[in-house]
From TrEMBL:
Its EC number is 2.6.1.-. It is an enzyme of class 2 (transferase). It comes from the Bacteria. One of its GO terms (molecular function) is transaminase activity. InterPro entries: DegT/StrS_aminotransferase, PyrdxlP-dep_Trfase, PyrdxlP-dep_Trfase_major, PyrdxlP-dep_Trfase_small. SUPFAM superfamilies: PLP-dependent transferases (SSF53383). GO terms for biological process: polysaccharide biosynthetic process. This is Putative pyridoxal phosphate-dependent aminotransferase EpsN. It comes from Bythopirellula polymerisocia.
Amino acid sequence: MVDSNQPRIHCAGPSITEREIAYVTDAVTNCWYSDAGKYHQRLEAAVAEYLGVQHVVPTPTGTSAIHLAMMVLGIGPGDEVIVPELTWIGSAAPVSYVGARSVFADVDPDHWCLSAESLEAKITSRTRAVVVVDLYGDMPDYKRIREIADRCGIAVVEDAAQAFGSSWQGRKAGTFGDIGIFSLHGSKTVTSGEGGLFVTDRLDLYERALTLRDHGRRLDGTRFYEDFDRYYYHFELGNKFKMSSMQAALALAQVERAEELVTCKRQIHEWYCQELAEIPLYQIHTEREGLINSYWLPAVSIERGRQLDKLRVMRELEDCNIDIRPLYYPLSSLPPYCDTPSGHEAQQANRVAYDESPYGFNLPSNLRMTREDVVRVSAVLSRLSEEIVSTPTPTR
Ligand SMILES: *Cc1c(COP(=O)(O)O)cnc(C)c1O
């Protein structure tokens, strides 16, 4: 039974100000004809500057940015791409869209991101790339991952969908791979409603992206190519992965506010740390040295050996009209993958992911959260914890 006397606390959601409204209004009013690309250009420049990256390609979603990455890298049938077990399915699904095979690697128990050892163990002669995920704003050991990828000649795609504004040793998330991708979905820290970003320092990959996201056109140089009009000449089959001006305008306003939005996320995380410090059974993940986590969603591990798992916590909070998220199910356990050979192998091999998944969850961290909301969430967790600790474990 949901206690609807209390307003719902949403897990994630944006902060929208007069700036976003002004830019979007300008875009819908004026950005047609010769000005159609105005906000795209400003967005690309703002993202390039914020991240310290050379090239930026806005896309309709984060999923399509990963799909574009697969196309740009020339990945296709017969190829394997390594993906961590614990992530949103959008990290893995594009591997199948291009006809390649996802191979699932295990995660590190400390931060739930890709384990470098497991990555190394999964590489075969067919491996072409690894999608590395900055889960919930955290990051894995990029130094080792890069070293393994370089030695084995595979590309690194950094899925930084959940990590806009995180950094490691002063370098921003999204810049650790050959290609970085972001999602600008409404649940993410920086949003355009629906949207995504493909970023890279490599000119060759950037140029491929411009062609492959535009039905194989090459709109560089003059309009006329030999005897053809380039606008209507397709050099190859591509896809159509673009963003509208209204989305670009919204995204620009958000990127201009990125520091403020990240500060807000970090504040919410800090409040939870204070509230949960004395409460047994929950361990909130914090930063390792060198990392600045933009804390898209605070991540919590539940103590083992109690009558408590993520579903119990979720139900309890849902009854109080509070929306939390479970740590992801291992991808190899889900219907699209569980009956494939690589799924079977992963179910046996990826022990950490299977051990962690039932005992992890994310606390709500929408960008309108107040300290009172954090106190309300923490009070429910505290009550549940007391109940569990004081109930003797049933003996058989
Ligand atoms: C949100 C997300 C995506 C996909 O982004 P969309 O914009 O929803 O397509 C991909 N990977 C991760 C890790 C995500 O969280």
